[in-house]
Amino acid sequence: MTRRVLAAVFAALLAALVVLLTPSTGWADDEPSIAHVEATDDGLRVLVSVPADADVDLGGVTGTLDGDELDATATSTGTDTTVERTTILAIDTSDSMAQHGRFDAAKAAAQTFLDSVPDDVEVGIVTFDGEVRTALAPTTDRDAAQQVVDGLELSKGTLLYDGILAAVDAAGDAGQRSVLVLSDGADTGKETTLDHVTTEIDDTATLVDVVSLDQAGKPKAVAALDALAEAGQGQVIESTGSALADAFAAEAEVLAHQILVTAPLPAGFDATEATVAITLPTAGGDLVAHAFAKIQDAADTPAAPSLEPVNPDDGWDVPVGAFYAGILIFGVGLVTAAVLLVPRKAQPMTIAERVTAYTGTVGRGHEEPKAASEPMLDQAKAAAAGVLDRNKDLEAKLAVRLTAAGSGFKPSEWLLLHVGVVIASGMFGLLLGRGNIVVGLLFLGIGFFLPKLYLRFMAGRRRKAFNTALPETLQLMAGSLSAGMSLAQAVDTITREGQDPIASEFKRVLVENRIGVALEDAFEGVATRFDSKDFAWVVMAIRIQRQVGGNLAELLTTVAATMRERQYLRRQVDSLAAEGKLSAWILTGLPPGVFVWVMITQPGYMAPLYTEGLGLLILAGAVAWLSLGVFWMSRLTKVEV
């Protein structure tokens, strides 16, 4: 059955890999796309980019707006188009462009673009190296643009992000605006971040296409360019110096093959965003371009007269830091609430308090009032207790874990604290990741597992302390038995002279024995709680001695000597395996640690791993292989003695 399940999982993964790696059929890059949408008093205007080889029947073009039919009219774009079209060339002029003749190829490609782009398209030029310059404001004067291209010079630095921001600003805010970026390197600036640039591109609805020169072996630079193109609903065109002119010519070809579709707005339509669909009939079938677009320059709606004077200075823009400060304050509040749940350490009673306790006067008028915060905490504890009452299995598991760890928390209190840690961890992740949801979810998972790991660590530490002190405890019991004490008296001696956790556990044994539990059964409970095989052997020896008789003191002395030898051997093995264990911890923690660090510092670099199908498959494979490695390393470094 297991083999069949594994075979089915492997087949599913293989099929998913084939689907992800198989190129899709159909129009692919030859599909039409909506480049620009705007609404004016005259109606709706839509610019549609169509494939160069598509012969569109302009008389049969139809369209819909949020499903409503439009009375559409289609014309070819030209010098008399009523929609402004602006393209900004953002050209990298860093020193690295001098290699392999890239700079000369870039100038030639820009010339090709200027010769091919339609006459009505205004072209501007922005250059970036160690400085950003708007070399040419948008204009239809091709001679002026050519002079700027011929006069370009190289310098140090690559302020890629600042150059794109300047290009977006130079494109203006009217009509179709596009930016064509040419770069061969990553951004070297420190002031502007990738997130700021992509946000600006998205807010201004500017189309961005990137021509990437020789970026092989630069995954960080490639990821940044992909993020810029994705924000601008464009694409990254990887090119070399010889094919650069073809890439620029193709971009100009897109502007030359656009169709302007106009239609009056449906009656009563006043939305600023809508789904636009344009159907283009051709000899080979209908082509459909659709997009959920921001309706720009929408018709003004008469506003109701204001009853108060307008003062623009009255408003207050909330700074970005206030959002993170709010998260931090909320997280601190949760941590404070969790700290309040920790029970106070019991203070020894004074002589007067003991006397009043025996006389029964406590609680009749001298009870201290509760703090103001305690009723709220009591309600929270009561709610957690109600959850555990409906889930007895969970309550039993929590009780066992808390007992094994020696914790003073009740199951309801621990459940409440656990929830607080999870929420606080998620908030801290959002704060650390600057609002990144993925980082917040990662820290949410850490917060979920951290309390469990803490209990497991404390239980292991307590178990180790129990086993370490066990030989000396048995020796003390043997001495007490040799002195003529009974087994119960010997246990009482341990509770008074022994050390924790054995002293507290043996005290529990005496309490259980006094309420009717057999001494051997009480000892069996200690062995079960600590999962101690050594003490289980001691309990077995005591049972046998109780049944068949013999010298229990001598038996305990022999068992104590055997345990000392085993502990010595165990320490030897731990010393020899310490290097392997340390290596296993480093190899196990390094991949997820680096993943979290890069997610915090460069979230765009890791975005393809969880936003694309192939990236998710790679991430799942990495987790599977890491889990397999952790399993084998744990087996190799764990030696039973």
Helix proportion: 55-70%
The count of helical stretches stands at 20
Strand neighbour order, sheet with most strands = 8-7-6-9-10-11
Distance between the termini: 35 Å
Low-confidence stretches: 1-29, 297-320, 355-373
Characterize the overall form.
Answer: elongated
Rg value: 38 Å
- Quote the beta fraction: 5-15%
The largest pleated sheet is described as:
6 strands, mixed
Please tell me the overall pLDDT.
75
Structural class: alpha/beta
Record field, number of beta strands? 14
* CATH fold description of the domain at 85-242: Rossmann fold
List its traits.
641 residues, four-stranded antiparallel beta sheet, 20 helices, 14 strands, elongated, disordered N terminus
Describe this structure in words.
This protein has 641 residues and is α/β, with parallel strands linked by helices. It has a domain at 85-242: von Willebrand factor, type A domain (Rossmann fold, 3-Layer(aba) Sandwich), CATH 3.40.50. It has helices at residues 2-21, 102-116, 142-150, 160-170, 194-204, 219-231, 244-256, 320-341, 351-359, 374-389, 392-405, 411-432, 437-482, 487-497, 502-514, 519-530, 533-548, 552-601, 603-611, 613-637; strands at residues 33-40, 43-49, 62-65, 68-70, 73-76, 85-92, 122-128, 132-139, 176-183, 207-213, 236-239, 258-263, 273-282, 285-294. The strands form 3 sheets. The protein has a 6-stranded mixed beta sheet, with helices on both faces. A hairpin with a 2-residue loop joins β13 and β14. The longest helix is centred in the last third of the chain and has 50 residues, at 552-601. The radius of gyration is 38 Å and the shape is elongated. The model is unreliable at 1-29, 297-320 and 355-373 (pLDDT under 50).
